[in-house]
Structures are given as C-alpha cells and as structure tokens.
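[job 4471] stage=fold_predict status=RUNNING
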Amino acid sequence: MSLMEDPGMNNKDLSSAIGLSPSTVSWHLNKLVATGIVKKTVHGRESNFEVIGPEKVAELITSVPTI
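[job 4471] inference complete, writing structure tokens
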C-alpha cells in the first residue's frame, strides 16, 4: 500500500514507512519484482520501486476475505 501511495520509494524509505528492516523489505521487493507486480528502476546505487497496475493490485487486495 505504501508503494501505491508513494510510487518511486527506495528500499530505505519503504523500510522506514512500514517499520521493517531493510533486508526484509529487500527480500519481499525482489519477490514482487520477480512476479511482475513491482517495477524496479536503478539510478546509480539507488533503486526505486513502483507498483505495476496499482488499480488491479488494489482490486485484488480488497477481494481477499479477512479472517
């Protein structure tokens, strides 16, 4: 959700926003990039991330039943 609200965040910013360690966020981001949900853009030593098709992702998130 943080990436959909603020596209282009880097790992450090996202880690701070959601309260997880940078290594944990990096692991999950790499999985999301590999599945085509998130796009990674590299600028020198920094990588920025954005959700591909945020409308579809939002639709999927809201369709998952809660327990």
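[job 4471] summary: The first strand starts at residue 9 and ends at 10.
[job 4471] exit 0
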